[in-house]
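Hi team,

Below is the intake form for LysR family transcriptional regulator from Massilia cavernae. Please confirm the fields before the structure is written into the shared record.

FORM ID: S-0412
PROTEIN: LysR family transcriptional regulator
ORGANISM: Massilia cavernae
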Amino acid sequence: MELRQLRYFVAIVDHGSLSRAALVLHVAQPALTQQLRQLEDELGARLLHRSAQGVLCTDAGKVFYEHAQAILKQVADARSAVTQSTTRPSGSVTLGLPHSISGALALPLLMATREHYPEITLQLTEELSGNLSEQLRSGRINLAVLFDDGQLGAFTSTPLIEEDLMFICRAGSALDPGGASVAFADALGRTLILPAQQQGVRPRIENAAHAAGLALANVIEINSIAILKSALLADMGATLLPAAPLQDQVESGALVARPIHSPALARSVTLCASKNIPLTNAAAAVGRLVHQVARDLCERGAWRGAHLPK
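The structure came back. Fields below:
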């Protein structure tokens, strides 16, 4: 198996056809087809379904595509690590952000990277935290912002910020108990719109409820922040989330966010890297910048409900 075969395969999948990939790669299509056939013969599996409309990955092809991407990225990072300067880091860095974090952190980080490290190309990918963990483990991304749920032992991790969970509902909703804050037990008695069991803040909420001898009365499970926001505005339920992903609607008055007490709830946000794959100078520089930007956002109050770890 050769690196060029991996590059050819990834290009075919990315462009959706052998002919388009051949044009981009500047390789004759028969030669590209031959390399693909050799790769499939070596692996003993068909990687692509071919048709007049283009190509689609088989199940084996989907698995191989992820590994091929990871290998090619690590090769590119190895080259970059050898050639780049410690004083002027350059190259490509991929950082994974959970959906509920990107609204607060993504744009300020992109702007700071452009200002301080103009020779670094920062690529941000937005995923569910579980998907980001797998991508970080396989080397497809350099860094990831993850939530410390006690399951981050496979990574090197440093605390970033603490985010308070809030009771959030539509302004004027009958679900709103009013007052300056909401008791945790009172919040659990409402119809709640939450991520699925193993995503985002849900494990934190479930563990706190179990510790208090409480149970969630009625839960609507939605993993998408955009759909969850629409459901809140339609008054289908309330939620227990940090305010950041819903900050625009809270500031406009469309949604109301109230702190939770008895107990107060927060989640720990950490910056993680692989223990097995060294960071390039560029990735290390971006990691330091993530901490600086997060600190600045907290100190200015621009990251609503966030505070620095004690």
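SUMMARY LINE: The longest helix spans residues 59-83.

Thanks, M.
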